[in-house]
Amino acid sequence: MLYAVDFLNNTFQSLGLLILRVIVGIIFIANGWMMLTRWGIDGTTASFAGSGIPMAGFVALFSIAVELIGGILFILGFGTRLIGLAYLAVSLGAIYFVHWAKGIYVAEGGFEYVMLLGACGLLFALIGPGKFSIDHMIAKAFRKKKQNRAVENHVVDADPVAAYSA
After folding, report:
1. CB 73 within 8 A of CB 79
2. More exposed terminus of the chain, fewer Cβ within 10 Å: N or C?
3. Could you give the CA distance from residue 69 to residue 66 in angstroms, rounded to a whole number?
4. How far apart are CA 33 and CA 79, in angstroms?
5. Which long-range contacts (CB under 8 A, 24 or more apart) does 9-14 make?
6. From the DSSP assignment, how many helices (H) and strands (E) are in the chain?
7. Domain ranges of the chain
8. What does 97-156 look like in DSSP terms, one character per residue?
9. Using one digit for the tens of pLDDT, what is the confidence trace for 112-134?
10. What share of the chain is helix, strand, coil (3-state, %, to 5)?
11. CA distances for 68 relative to 1, 40, 45, 52, 56, angstroms
């Protein structure tokens, strides 16, 4: 019975992580799309430079790529831990250079919204995407391949005839 409870908890936890990944991914895609289409790369670079962000051109391209491409991959659960760290980096930069001086409240340009997105990035960097993800499918395939190799090696080692004829 305990196994069934663990299975259900794991399934529900993974479902919760999937829902959160989709929501956060959509938000990042929307922000990246806005920077790319509404502001353009030059406008985003100028905005970043005006906020005192160093290497504004590089950071603008990095931010757009992380938010657009990373958002799609995040929803799919591919490279989730790395993208989570990238989200955290983008969010910390936005908090430091843009939102910190305005206080916490988002209505006043503060950092509460960006801090929440950064915390979500950190969460996924630490615990991963859950079992409803490409990352999980890849890890499962590698584990199965490793187990199969271990079983094959064990069988050969345990068979005295095979060991003698090798």
Report:
1. yes
2. N
3. 6
4. 20
5. 10/131, 11/131, 13/130, 14/130, 14/131, 14/132, 14/136
6. 7, 0
7. 2-132, 133-166
8. IIIGGG-S-GGGT-SHHHHHHHHHHHHHHHH---SSSHHHHHHHHHHHHHHHHHHHHHHH
9. 999 999 999 999 999 999 999 99
10. 85, 0, 15
11. 43, 13, 16, 23, 18
Q: Residue 141 and residue 159: Cα distance in Å, rounded? A: 27
Total-model pTM: 0.81
Digit-coded pLDDT (tens) for 66-104:
999 999 999 999 999 999 999 999 999 999 999 999 999
Note whether 35 and 63 are within 8 A (CB).
yes
Residue 39: CB atoms within 10 A of its CB come to 16
Place of tokens 């990238």: 86
**Structure-token match 């250079």, residue found:** 97
Rg of the chain on CA atoms, in Å: 22
